[in-house]
Amino acid sequence: MTGSDVRLPLAVTMGEPAGIGGEIVLKAWAAHVEDDVPPFFVLDDPNRLESLAKAIGLAVPVRAITSPAEAPALFATALPVLPQALAAPVQPGRPDPANGPAVIASIDRAVDLVRRGEAAAVVTNPIQKSALYAAGFRHPGHTEYLAHLAGMTEEPVMMLAARDLRVVPVTIHVSLRDAVNQLTTEAIVHAGRVTAAGLVRDFGIARPRLAIAALNPHAGEDGSMGREEIDIIAPAVAALRAEGIDAIGPRPSDTLFHVAARAGFDAALCMYHDQALIPLKTIDFDTGVNITLGLPFVRTSPDHGTALDIAGTGRAGASSLIAAMKTAALMARSRTSAASASRPA
Length: 345
What we know:
Blueprint: E1 10-12, H1 21-30, E2 40-44, H2 46-55, E3 62-64, H3 71-74, E4 79-83, H4 100-115, E5 122-123, H5 129-134, H6 142-149, E6 157-162, E7 165-169, H7 176-182, H8 185-203, E8 209-213, H9 228-242, E9 246-251, H10 259-262, E10 267-270, H11 273-283, E11 289-293, E12 299-302, H12 319-342
Parallel strand pairs: 1-2, 1-5, 2-4, 3-4, 5-12, 7-10, 8-9, 8-10
Antiparallel strand pairs: 6-7, 6-11, 11-12
Helix pairs in contact: 8-9
């Protein structure tokens, strides 16, 4: 797939225009020399971004482009913007469902450009789901919509990455009670299989090591604190190992994330959302990256939301977006290397 060619720019989506997406894009470009940000373009309204830059006091020249091919040469001197028209004026902190179609179109176009080989990867800015639902959006979130665009029949897997840690929640945005009820051997095996394949293809790790977290304290202590480890998790570990995947567990989560333990695995599969996100955000709150594994194209995102409460104030930080861009470029490079190595000599 030529869309992973690292000589191509990254395609950055608009995200919720009333949120902080525009601001962090501007700040990412302003820091591109100091922070070695890979070339990118953003699908957004150039007039909106220009006005926003002035409002928050950023000296960022904004230039409209007609195709992604113009972005690399322009990037050193201006922020390249592939115009995406908005239906209504943007008021920071106040999402307007009228702009929902433009937000969705920005995602659609970014994916299409990557799949056509005109961009290296998709980096998505945060969306405001309530505004999109009001505009007729029928998917739970970015991940499910991207899987729909890719025509996938299997669920992709969400990985969160930060300094020295990668985590994969097997169950995601559900209550703790529902997470326990939804946990199955099959779900753990699927997450482990996709994670291992993603670590090989997207991160160049030849033999990934997976640590599988327990659900209960002390890994259930032989069933005295719950049988999920015996009945659900241990069989999943055995199934992954039978497939040739280096998986260990179930491991008690209270001893899984300290420095020495982290050195023993490349990613940890966690049984519920906070089991994965608490250690990651404790270790590195500012530069966490959301990665979708299993897609036929590279997709990353900053690990935060739209931050409507500070939108338009100039207070938003771009560290997570910059980390998402660097991760996307690294993943694209890994896919390109793997594709080159697999071609006949």
